[in-house]
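Entry type: protein chain
Record version: 2
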Amino acid sequence: MRMRRIGVVAVLVVGLTAAASAPATAAVVRGGGTRWRPSVVDVDRRERVRWRAVSRTHTVRAYGGNWKFSKRIGPGQSVKRRFAKRGTYRFFCSIHGNVAGGNCTGMCGRVLV
């Protein structure tokens, strides 16, 4: 009986360690209509941001030069990205937003790490 308890404890410890080391999804940005909500999220290094299309098809596209990312998501779909370095990561929907001269109008946002 004593050996069985040790085995159960070992499984629990391994499971808890694996869960603790997995990167957390720290923020969810929802794309509805022609806006990202929230448009600015603040996360710690190594945390993930998830973009979710609530309605319509949207793109999550990087701009500003410090990262490369471009994904298309349909209603109910989502995409995640982990941020390892500190900085400001700007994004927009190329369907409902526009970047000209480094300035974004329409469906734009920022991730602050």
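Comment: The two ends are 49 Å apart (CA to CA).
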